[in-house]
What does this fold into?
Amino acid sequence: MDTLRSRPPGHLMSGLLDQDIAHIRRVMPLSLSGDLGGPILSPSYWRTRLHRLLDTGHVNKGQLADIDSLLLQIALHELNVASAAVAATAKRAVGNGAGRH
It folds into this structure.
């Protein structure tokens, strides 16, 4: 009995995509949070990896939803970083202005 014949075309690619998406889902948040020096791998690195998966043309609806969710996480991370930078700048400005009265 040949089990490979009973499977749909592209099932191997789909499995590889699932594994890659699962890997990115596990490591991306840790990589983005990084350490005191910042992210281990940049948001643009992760965005590029996800877009390469989309570019394969073998992404099913479930995988597309997963990739979309991961891209949203990257966008939210960047928004949080930008908001924190603005808040820190505002805090310094208020602190510097308070000593002038």
Notes: The CA atoms of residues 6 and 73 lie 37 Å apart.
